[in-house]
Every structure is written in structure tokens, then in C-alpha cells.
Amino acid sequence: MRRTIDWADGAVVIIDQTALPGEYRLLELRTVDELVDAVKRLAVRGAPALGAAGALGVALAARRGGDVEQAAEVIATARPTAVNLAWGVQRALGKLGEGADAVLAEALALLDEDERLNKTASRHAAEIVLAECPRRPLRLLSHCNAGRLATVGWGTALGVVWHLHERGLVEEVLVDETRPLLQGARLTAWELAQAAVPYRVQPDSAAAAAMARGLVDCVLVGADRIAANGDVANKIGTYGLAIAARYHGVPFVVVAPSSTVDSKLGDGAGIAIEERDARELTHYAGVPITPPDADVFNPAFDVTPYDLVTAVVTEHGRLTP
Question: Domain 134-318's class?
Fold first, then answer.
């Protein structure tokens, strides 16, 4: 599969994740406004992929001229929780004094680095999973999408699955559907099918029951921001999974590049949690499914305390808070 996000002929080219799995569609983003819109409506998503989007967005702005720093601020604040977006913006912006070509070169270097570091992080995590889980082959549980589509081209938590599958060590992956936008059912299931990895989709509310029935050897998730003490912000529902995993004695492993670690935040209480549009809950396929006056609580992420996590793994290995 091609990269989730790349640069070609003066445009940022992304796989439109809002169209999957029904249609595999590429989008060419030629302006900062188009890129910001793609970020906000989740056509491109996943912390590492957002880092790449941030850097490439600055490259777009630098090539078009005007107030690049103002454009960079708009990009960096398009989604508040994933630290990688602002990190990618700042990394590319650091080359602005050397000209637009230098900005683009830095953004492209970030893309290459993302693939390399996520392969390394997921390889480290695979060894930790094997050390924690004596049963073979493994039954793994995933939440949201932390695969190729969430990164430039490999994956974080799902990258662990690729490593283990290559060694014949995966029996199946239980895929949380991941309400309300179904990133698990739509995206993770699609990636697993493409890679011929056995999987089953389950409702989010079935995860604890699956653990109770002994169907899960390890939970694997990614992260959108990790505080200095190891607290993890990830897709809403991750916290509940961690509680269930602890109760049932199931290892809970978080995989992310070190760019996701926000050393400025002492703990997860300081992580800004994005709240999404109420229509994601009040409507399905454009049809209202709640009373018209229903109030909505729709956070995109939650924070899992580090003491519920078996290991946070980056390209440097197991994270020490």
C-alpha cells in the first residue's frame, strides 16, 4: 500500500480515510485551507500521520508565500489533543529561514523518519508482548486504528501485529468497532484484511466480556499524547479497556513514536481533550437517531493513567516515566 500521506507535484496527497472501506480514494491538497479541512474532518488522522500533515502543511504555505507563521498556527491548532500535529509544524517551521525548498526537504525527511521509527518501536513492542504472553499463537485486541493509515506507512500498535504475523504468531485480532466514527470497523479491519491477518470485529462494549471469556492475550493501542509521567491520551474508550485489562490480568501495551511524548506535561490532567460535533452521535448516515433536543457528550479521547499500563513503547524501547 502506498503511503498514507505524501508529497507529489506540489501537493499533499493523502488516502481519504472517510471513504474507506467502501472506496479507496486519493485526495490532492494544494492549499493550507484544504489541508486543515482534511485534518478536521479526519480524512487524515492518527498522531504520526498528523505530524506529517503538519510539516507538509508548512511546506505548502512556504511555497505559496504570505504569512507562513500565521498559516502554521492555523495548522497546529486544527486538532488540539495530538501533540504530533504541532510538533510537525514546528519542525518544518524551523527551516523557514533557509527557504521553501529547505522546509519541504525537512518535511520529507520527517516522513522517512516516521516509517523507520515506527517499525523500530513496534519491533520493540512485539518482543515485550512475547515476553508478557506465554500462549502461542496470540489473540490480540485493538482499539481505534493504529496501523498504516494512522502513520506515514507502517503503524504503531498495529505494526506489532505485522511483526508477529510475519513470524506466524497471530491467531486473530479482535477489532473494537470504535464508536462513534468506527475507525476500528472501517479502517483497522480493512488493513488486517489487506494483510490477510485473521480478525473479528466486535462492539466496543464486548471487550471486557471477551477478556472474561479468555479470548484476549494482550491489548495493543496507540497514543495521541503521552505525558511525562506516562499517562496516555488515546481514542475514547481506551481508559475503560485498560481498567478491564487490569481486572482480568491482560497485558496492556501502548506503542507510539517518541514525538508523541509531551515532556512539558507532568501528567495526563494537562492534556486538552477534543470534543467532536454532536451530529456524530445524534445522526447515523445523515438520519437523526436521537430526540432533536438531546444533549451530547462526545469527547474524542480519554486519558489512561500510567499505573494501568503494562508498557509504553517507543523507538527507544520501554518508556521510563
Answer: alpha beta
